[in-house]
Structures are given as C-alpha cells and as structure tokens.
Task: inverse folding
C-alpha cells in the first residue's frame, strides 16, 4: 500500500503520487471512499486519452450516488487499473493501494505546488 | 400443501391445470409447417404456468396488497410531490370521448379533445407566465431535453450555435438536468452553491461567458429554498447571451404566488404527473409540457393545436420547429387529468395548494429541528432537508433511518440527495396530508432519533415487519442477476 504521506491531494479528494517527475499515479482519498460508501462500479478512461487538468476522467458509482473524478494534472493516460472493473470493492478496501485509478504521463515535470500534502489534506477534511 | 401467495406463478404451476374452457375450434386446423419456415418453429412447448383462475387472482391480489402508494399511506418522497390525486379526475379521463378516440381520426371528429388541449395550454400559460405551451413531452426529463433543443435552435438562428456549448447547472440540481444537457449535446458546467444553499452569484458570474448556452435551475431548489436572487441570476445569464431553463419539478411550491415567466426564465417544463393530478411513481405515463416566451415560439415542437373561430386545427407547417418529440399529442390522458384538476381547483384553489404545501413542510421542519441537523436554517418552501450526521456519529446511517420508517408504515423520504448535504434526508409532505398525519410522522422520526441514541439496533436492523427485510444492495449492484432461473 502506498504511503499516504507521500501523496498530494486536491480539494475534490483526488490524490496524486509522483512516480517520476513527469509520471503520476492518481486515485481518490480514503475520505472520498468513506463518503461514497460501498462502491459498485468504476468506469475508467481509454488508454492514451489526452487529459487537461480538471478534465473529468472517471465515474465512481456507489450504492448512494455517482461521482465524477477529475484529473489533477495534464497529460496522457498511460495505464488504467482495469482490476476495478470486476472488483470495485478494491477501491473501498485500499484507496491508496490496489484501488488506484490511472497513471498519467505528462510532457513536462508535474507541478504539485497547488496541491495539499497529507497533513494539510487531513486538516482540510476535518474542517468539512 | 397450500400454495403460499408469495410464490411465483411458475412455482405454483401444476401440469395440466387450466383456468379456461374453450370449445373445439370450428376452423380447419393448419399444420405450422405449412405457414411458417422451419427455423421459426420452436421445438419444445413454451413454458407457461398452468393455474386456475382463482390462483391467478390471489397471486395478483397478493402482489397488489404488498404495494405501497399514496392511497396506502404517507409518502414524503422529496422532489416527487407524492400527493393525493382526486378520483374525479380519473373519472373524467375515462370519459369515452377522451378515452376511446384515435389520434389519427379527422380533427373535425375530435374537436372536444383538441379544445381541451387548447384550453389546458391557455391555463398553463397563466400558471407559468409563458407565451406558448407544447403538451408533447412525455415527462420532465423529456421536457428538459426538448427545452434545450429549443435553446440550441435559438442560438443557431442567431449564428451562435457553434460558440455556445455550455449549460450551467447548480450542484444541487436534479440529476436529470445535467443528463438532459448531455443528451442534447451540451457540455455541463457545475455551479457551486453558496453557504445559504443557493446559487452563488460570484460563482455564476465567473462561469458565464460567450460560450454559455444557458442555465438550468429549479426554484425553489432541491433544498426547498427559494432562489431569492433569481432576478439578478436571470440578468447575469441574459447579459452573457444565455437563456434560462426552469425545471418545474418543484412547481407545487409557487402556484398562484409567482411564475417562472416573472422570474425571468425563457423555457419551462411542468410535471403534470407531480403537481397536476396523475398518480405516478409506478412507471406509468407522465406529462412534461414545456412553455416558452414569445421569441422562442417558432422553435416549439410540432404539430401544434390552433384555434380559428370556433374550430380547432392541428397544424404542422412550422419550418423553424425542433420537430416532433413524442408520438401523436403527448400523453393525452394525463393532460385530461391536469385540465380537470385545474378547473376543479380554480385559481384560488391552486394558490391554496402551495400555501398548504409550504405550511406543512415548515411545520414538520420545526418539529424535527431539535432532533436532526438542519444544514439550512431559513424557512423552506414545499420541502426541506435534514442531515443525519448527528445519528451517523452514533453508528446509525440515514439509510437505517429510512428503513426504520417503513416499520412505522411510512414510505421513506428521498435519501442521499441533494448530493451537497451529507447523510441527507429530503422530506416533502405535500398539501394533501392532515395535521394528525404530519404529527404521526414527526413522532416516528423523533422516536427513531431517540432510538439511535438508546437502542441503535432497532434502527440499524430495520425493517423488522416487512415481507422483505434488508436487501444486499451492494451485491445486487456489483454482481446483478437479472434473469429468473428455474431451480
């Protein structure tokens, strides 16, 4: 399982892991998963989809509601976690691990300065 | 063994049992192979249940007795306006002059039906403050879609069709709003609500621009709150060159008090099956007429009903029309009920509908406020939202509260919507309930809140009294089995 303290977060509860300067893994936070409840369906993008920052790239459906997931960075979808199609529960079980959503290749170093680190994110969530 | 009437027809079927007795056919028998190609003839007999008439009767009566409707009990399903629909309107819809006509019969032989449609359009103009009405759309979401096609036709006629690609939708909107926009080919931009639960003016100003096709809004919104800045909202959208769409799902709150036309909306739909007397919720037909202002009239669906002297005509020569959106003339029977309802209530009666609906919602809200969190404290219109956050901390979720209400004989309110309220319960009592009924519901809700503290198991394990207990929604959604399999 990925160490939460190495991740960066958005206010919309996506997380970003910097695997390389220009290559990231993206998922949604433990708080997001807790709010959604039991997740029953995850729709992921096609490989090679070009994403702008804040583009909608996935849909996560729970017994309560359906949520759109937005890309925190600009780039090309280079991997998708297709295990989630058959086992969406992995997202509930390990949002920072086996429940990751996609990996994005950026054409330039990814700037995370606008994102929150784990402690800032926890503080943000406690104020919600 | 006695047949149990929870069983399926196939399970109580016995070979050779019959519910009919027919004489020998007097027509000469023809071999199937003489009239059908071989690949269309089934090799085994179809498996049809074999039952007596009484068994079939008990089976379906048993099923109908398990059903819950507004005639069985209180049904406070927020945003759905599950109110009582007077039976006189059902009677009138069944008059043979309305029920036994055919949409293709010559207009001169169906003048009464055309007159009713014409008069209903006139009445709905008054209710909505619009200049023209089309009764075609089959229900609310189709009305939204048709309305957005009118937006598109308008922008195209102004040479701005390519440029105006975006529909703005508040984050508290009914899910059909963004869905209809996507089906109409638009991109959706979400507008965040402000702290008072209303459209944020600053967020709206930041979102509008030369690419704005329009804004879709429900007023009062899904939190049951009136958008008090509606005039300014309309100005902002109009100044940017966009149009305003009124989702009429919550019309029960404003009848005779205000109109979407006065608020500045350009296109509106009404859900006749919610606000104007048609039973709904069982998947039966609805009706979602749309209304527009003068400058959009040319784009309305075709055919239309027109009056010349004392004669009513069906006209189809409307070159700028978005075309036909529904077969024939929409769901005519629903429109008959709506007309009968409007005429029997009268203008004063409709105004009383909204006054009572708003009073009832505020009364319930006031009784429940000490026991549940109310994210928005101001007075509500016809519905209100509670948050189950206080109960969630005790391990009792909103879903549990909803399930527990079933044991008290109530239908559960809408839950987990609008999405912007955590552990949301959305309650719409409607105008047709007596005070004693509202009190019985409030008492049940208060008892559930107390049980959440003292005996949480009685809530989290509910329902205890129903034929079907807690369903495994998660497995049903993750691994659905959608066909019946014979054991």
Result:
């Amino acid at each position: 399982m990925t160490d939460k303290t190495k991740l960066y977060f958005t206010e919309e509860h996506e997380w970003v892991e910097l695997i390389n300067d220009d290559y990231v893994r993206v998922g949604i936070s433990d708080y997001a998963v807790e709010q959604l409840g039991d997740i029953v369906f995850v729709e992921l993008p096609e490989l090679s989809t070009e994403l702008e920052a804040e583009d909608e790239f996935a849909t996560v459906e729970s017994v309560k509601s359906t949520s759109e997931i937005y890309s925190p960075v600009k780039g090309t979808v280079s991997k998708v976690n297709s295990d989630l199609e058959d086992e969406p529960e992995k997202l509930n079980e390990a949002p920072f691990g086996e429940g990751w959503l996609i990996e994005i290749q950026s054409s330039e170093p990814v700037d995370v300065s606008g994102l929150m680190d784990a402690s800032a994110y926890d503080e943000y969530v406690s104020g919600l | 063994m006695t047949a149990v009437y929870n069983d399926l027809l196939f399970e109580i079927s016995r070979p050779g049992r019959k519910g009919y007795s027919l004489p020998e056919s007097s027509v000469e028998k023809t071999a199937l192979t003489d009239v059908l190609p071989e690949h269309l003839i089934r090799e085994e007999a179809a498996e049809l249940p074999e039952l007596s008439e009484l068994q079939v009767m008990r089976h379906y009566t048993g099923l109908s007795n398990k059903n819950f409707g507004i005639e069985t009990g209180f049904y406070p399903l927020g945003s759905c306006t599950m109110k009582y629909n007077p039976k006189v309107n059902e009677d009138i819809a069944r008059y043979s002059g309305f029920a036994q006509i055919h949409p293709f019969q010559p207009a001169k032989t169906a003048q009464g039906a055309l007159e009713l449609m014409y008069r209903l359009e006139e009445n709905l103009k008054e209710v909505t403050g619009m200049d023209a009405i089309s009764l075609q759309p089959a229900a609310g979401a189709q009305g939204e879609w048709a309305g957005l096609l009118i937006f598109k036709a308008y922008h195209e006629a102004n040479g701005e069709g390519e440029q105006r690609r975006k529909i703005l939708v508040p984050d508290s909107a009914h899910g059909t709003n963004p869905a209809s926009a996507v089906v109409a080919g638009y991109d959706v931009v979400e507008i965040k609500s402000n702290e008072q639960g209303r459209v944020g003016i600053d967020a709206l100003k930041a979102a509008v621009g030369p690419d704005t096709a329009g804004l879709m809004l429900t007023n009062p919104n899904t939190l049951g709150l009136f958008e008090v800045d509606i005039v300014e909202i309309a100005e902002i959208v109009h100044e940017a060159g966009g149009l305003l769409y009124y989702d009429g799902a919550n019309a029960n709150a404003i009848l005779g008090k205000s109109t979407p036309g006065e608020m500045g909306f350009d296109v509106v739909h009404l859900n006749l099956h919610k606000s104007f007397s048609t039973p709904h919720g069982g998947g039966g037909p609805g009706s979602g007429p749309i209304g527009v202002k003068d400058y959009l009239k040319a784009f309305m669906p075709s055919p239309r009903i027109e009056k010349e002297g004392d004669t009513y005509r069906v006209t189809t020569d409307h070159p700028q029309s978005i075309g036909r959106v529904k077969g024939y003339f929409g769901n005519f029977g629903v429109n008959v009920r709506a007309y009968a309802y409007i005429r029997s209530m009268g203008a004063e009666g409709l105004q009383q509908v909204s006054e009572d609906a708003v009073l009832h919602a505020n009364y319930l809200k006031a009784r429940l406020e000490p026991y549940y969190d109310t994210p928005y404290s101001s007075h509500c219109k016809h519905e209100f939202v509670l948050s189950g956050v206080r109960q969630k901390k005790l391990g009792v979720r909103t879903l549990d509260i909803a399930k527990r209400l079933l044991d008290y004989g109530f239908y559960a309110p809408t839950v987990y919507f609008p999405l912007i309220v955590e552990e949301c319960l959305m309650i719409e009592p409607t105008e047709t309930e007596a005070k004693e009924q509202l009190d019985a519901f409030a008492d049940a809700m208060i008892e559930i809140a107390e049980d959440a503290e003292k005996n949480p198991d009685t809530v989290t394990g509910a329902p205890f009294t129903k034929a079907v207990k807690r369903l495994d929604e998660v497995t049903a959604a993750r691994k659905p089995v959608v066909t019946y399999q014979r054991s």
